[in-house]
Amino acid sequence: FSCMPLQGVTLDSQSQVLLDLGTRMPRVHWLTDADTMYSLVWWFPTCITYNIVFIYFFVTDRPKLAENYTEDTWLKLRDAVGAIQNSTSIKYNLEELYQAVENLCSYKVSPTLYKQLRQVCEDHVQAQIQQFREYPSLDNLSFLKRMNRCWQDHCRQTIMIRSIFLFLDRTYVLQNSLLPSIWDTGLELFRTHIVSDSAVQKRTVDGILEQIELERNGETVDRSLIRSLLGMLSDLQVYKDSFEERFLIETNRLYAAEGQRLMQERDVPEYLHHVARRLEEENDRIMSYLDQSTQKPLISCVEKQLLGEHMTAMLQKGLSILLDGNRLTELVLLYQLFSKVKGGLPTLLQFWRDYIKSFGGEIVCTPEKDKDMVQDLLDFKDKMDNVAQSCFTRNEGFINAMKEAFEAFINKRPNKPAELIAKYVDSKLRAGNKEATEEELERILDKIMIIFRFIHGKDVFEAFYKKDLAKRLLVGKSASVDAEKSMLSKLKHECGAAFTSKLEGMFKDMELSKDIMIQFKQYIQNQSEPSNIELTVNILTMGHWPSYTPMEVHLPPEMVKLQEVFKLFYLGKHSGRKLQWQPTLGHAVLKAEFKEGKKEVQVSLFQTLVLLMFNEGEEFSVEEIRTATGIEEGELKRTLQSLACGKARVLNKNPRGKDVEDGDRFNFNNDFKHKLFRIKINQIQMKETVEEQVSTTERVFQDRQYQIDAAVVRIMKMRKTLSHNLLVSELYNQLKFPVKPGDLKKRIESLIDRDYMERDKETPNQYHYVA
């Protein structure tokens, strides 16, 4: 007959089944349960219909156990357990014992068997406690070894007992979730009767702590013993309560005392290496024998006691030593260690910032170091950059703190750093500077720009840079036009087009002057009386160049005539313009005849006027030269000194000496010798120059007054009415140079006096714009 698929048909264990299903035989599975019943499961695909032909069932009774079988079997099993516990040989075959346990379980004896086994094991464990009480004189290490041996024996015995009673463990115990397994029972008994004993537990933990302390003090200990005992505590689930709490307390006490002592005895580099070594040792202990759960509190404890409690003292005592000595290895270690401690990096950052301010402030604010200030600043910046990158992992906070510190200390001394940076750039861009290749010079300029960014008074830099640039361009002392334009491009990128407009105008004037001189040479060639003097003139726009004090000198008639020719030529092309001759920066090349032969002498215009006098006479006094040339006294003495007292002495001074006095007389040195054909005689410059410095600084100050006035008028014109405090606040936002409140107040008063603005009659702190 047709039927639906059958599933889960359960038959009695003694039934016999006869199935005749023709050629379509189903799959048959015999499954054994705990009571040795058999289940016959028929599996059918749901999409097929089967015909069942015959099913026969034959049921027989279960055989009965022999009399006293249960008692005899238990005695046999108890003897085997005792042999295992006493480490003697077992009389019976293990397979026979296993089968005996299976038979007992099959006949519902499992609960009794489990209780009997537990009682035997408990009696044995209770007896073990005596070995730890009988020998109180044992030293700690011997006690630990005995405890470890007892634990290892117990684990080995429990494993063997479980292998015999495995059927019980996998059937009865597994089906009763409230019952612990045989292995867990063994752990529970050992914990309850041995480890939980207060005296035994204290002695065990004391011994382990003693071994760890010995190891911390440099002695060799049995790590496998410690690992085994701590594993025991962990397996018994008493590790945290019995050991870890005491271990951390002892660790805290040890490192607190050690930190206090070593901070007094050792310098910071040694102390840092010691802390790193201690942390490495503790991590090694965790890997070797401590539980992984101990890692975080243990390392935190060491870091707190050796680092956290001494951060400020360490940095006060040793940071400057590490930075001064450029001890990069220790600085890397310092950063790594402080990054592990709460608040470590912020504290380190603050001390780093303070160090930079202090060290840099000493460079800037010590007048005796002015000569090397800029180079010292560049070296210091390179050094701090290297520390930030290689030691502080380019941490953005440290880089920003360094920038803030540089900006703070470099502006402690107004104007001077800006002036010296401009002069440093001049020394690098001046002709004859062979210290660096073009690539190196470009790198130096980039570094200078980094320092330049920190300066507030950039107008001071501009004034001195412009003055030096003018000399380089007019006297032909510039090392490289490309380098000059590169520097100009950097300044323009940094400060904007307005900052460099006048400097760019200087370069344009020089280029236009070249074109004008080409035209002038053609003009001269067409003259009926060509001159034997070759004249080069630079036409400068007055607003672009530094202002020079006009100086009238007595030029030879040939030069005066040539000047007039150029004046006619230039004004003929550019009517309405006015030419003002400036001899201060003029220079010339003279042909001279000595006994050795002809030479060319490259000299300044003042030197030229002095030397040309010796075409008319043999010897002259200082007064005679002054009268003939019209050169100012101080400038004349420096000129004569350069011609008669320098390396190339084309004049003889009588009497001899390094300085020029009023009574000295000079004559032409016909015996002059030099290996070169063209000789450049440098003009002796005064140390710059109290006059030049004051003049340049005064010009900057005056420009600032104009800028303040313009800003005040601009703000008031837009706002119409404004309080004093708001006006000052607006001015601080707009002005690009540092200014004091008193200076602003003076300019406001000046504008009120000049009727650009007025005070409110009722509120004196209120201003009104006057249209």
At CATH level 2, the architecture of the domain at 69-196 is: Up-down Bundle
- CATH C-level class of the domain at 69-196 is Mainly Alpha
The portion of residues forming beta strands comes to: 5-15%
> Could you say what the CATH topology of the domain at 69-196 is called?
5 helical Cullin repeat like
Mass-distribution shape: elongated
Radius of gyration: 52 Å
Major sheet details? 3 strands, mixed
Strand order of the largest sheet: 7-8-12
Total strands: the figure is 15
Pfam family, one: Cullin_Nedd8
GO molecular function: ubiquitin protein ligase binding
Transmembrane segments: 40-59
Domain Cullin family profile: 416-644
Question: What keyword list fits this structure?
Answer:
771 residues, 5 helical Cullin repeat like, 3-stranded mixed beta sheet, 30 helices, elongated, disordered N terminus
SSE topology sketch:
Blueprint lengths: L1 E2 L12 E4 L7 E6 L5 E6 L6 E2 L3 E4 L10 H17 L8 H13 L3 H19 L1 H4 L6 H25 L1 H5 L1 H4 L6 H14 L2 H19 L6 H13 L3 H27 L2 H21 L6 H12 L4 H14 L3 H11 L5 H22 L7 H18 L5 H15 L5 H14 L8 H16 L4 H17 L6 H15 L1 H29 L31 H17 L13 E8 L2 E8 H8 L6 E3 H8 L3 H12 L6 E4 L10 E4 L9 E3 L9 H30 L1 E3 H11 L6 H13 L3 E3 L6 E4 L2
Parallel strand pairs: 8-12
Antiparallel strand pairs: 1-5, 2-6, 3-4, 7-8, 9-11, 10-11, 13-15, 14-15
Helix pairs in contact: 1-2, 1-3, 3-8, 5-8, 5-9, 5-10, 9-11, 10-11, 11-13, 12-13, 12-15, 14-15, 14-16, 16-17, 16-18, 19-20, 19-21, 20-22, 21-23, 21-28, 22-23, 23-24, 28-29, 28-30
Pathway: Protein modification; protein ubiquitination
Keywords: Biological rhythms, DNA damage, DNA repair, Host-virus interaction, Isopeptide bond, Membrane, Phosphoprotein, Transmembrane, Transmembrane helix, Ubl conjugation, Ubl conjugation pathway
GO biological process, one term: regulation of protein metabolic process
